[in-house]
Amino acid sequence: MNSSRTISLVKQTKNNNCAAACISMVTGESIEEVEMELQADGGKAPYGLDHIVRYFTRHGIYMEKIHSGLQTPILDDSIYIATCPSYTVAGESHMICLAVNHGSVQVLDPSDNLEEEKIFSLGVPVEGWIQCFEYFKLYDCTIKNS
After folding, report:
1. Whole-angstrom Cα distance, residue 2 to residue 4?
2. Is residue 23's pLDDT more than 90?
3. Which pTM was predicted?
4. CA within 20 to 30 Å of 47's CA: 22, 56, 97, 140, which one?
């Protein structure tokens, strides 16, 4: 059974807790609650992929790696988490959410460097607007139609 979810932008509260902010966007829990649970699982910011997968699993959300690099197929009515280069820490990665609904891609970046969400058309190649390392599709996490 799928549960309908909407996601809203959550800003990271530290320079290294973008993963917790993305989890908060998807689950609707506060970033503080997310971090407490990640830390209880042995995680420490910046949180590793293993902690993120376990967190989602405990909350009934399955996270599947669908592709690495460019040319990733982005499907309508889906929610993704993606890793991309960090703009603030050289050589590190950053995590963002992508919400795809009715042919548009909403990029929710928890970074303090961006003040607002970005929305793009599915017709625009992914590599034209963001270069991500990995994409993870979230299941049992559908977008509620307005």
Report:
1. 6
2. yes
3. 0.78
4. 140
What is the C-alpha to C-alpha distance for residues 95 and 22, in angstroms, rounded to an integer?
7
All structural domains of the chain, each given as residue ranges with its CATH number in brackets, are: 9-143 (3.90.70.10)
Q: Mark out the alpha helices in the chain (DSSP H runs).
A: 18-27, 31-40, 49-58
pLDDT of 55: 92
The helix/strand/coil state of 106 is strand
- The answer on pLDDT for 18 being more than 60 is yes
Q: What are phi and psi of 33, to 5 degrees?
A: -65, -40
Contact, 117 vs 107, CB < 8 A?
yes
Nearest to 55 by CA among 7, 99, 17, 20: 20
Amino acid of residue 40 = A
Residue whose C-alpha is closest to residue 7's, from 96, 126, 134: 96
